[in-house]
């Protein structure tokens, strides 16, 4: 059984204040975990790029900005 987003929102509005606060905590924690997974995936990809010699490093901001404007 699947609900539409609007139905879920209406169901949430029917919850008590305590239940809404608990749901908010659950959603916040879920978003934090999602972001951590995303950061980990990006870090792994960066490490793989570094291992293949595909990353550039810059010793100063001017070189970095120049590189960004040409890519």
Describe what this molecule looks like in 3D:
This protein is mostly helical. The protein has one domain (5-70). Helices cover 76% and strands 0% of the residues. It contains 3 helices and no strands. The protein has helices at 5-13, 17-51, 61-70.
Summary of the model, kept short:
By secondary structure, this protein is an all-alpha fold.
Which ranges are low-confidence, i.e. pLDDT below 50, for 5 or more consecutive residues? none
The secondary structure category is: mainly alpha
Radius of gyration: 22 Å
Shape: elongated
- In whole angstroms, how far apart are the ends? 48 Å
Q: Strand count, sense and closure of the main sheet?
A: none
- Please count the beta strands (DSSP E, at least 2 residues each): 0
Number of helical stretches of at least 4 residues: 3
- Measured by DSSP, the beta-strand proportion falls in under 5%
Q: Can you give the helix content as a percent range?
A: over 70%
Following the backbone from N to C, one meets helices and strands in this order, namely: HHH
What is the subunit arrangement here?
Answer: single chain
pLDDT averaged over residues:
93
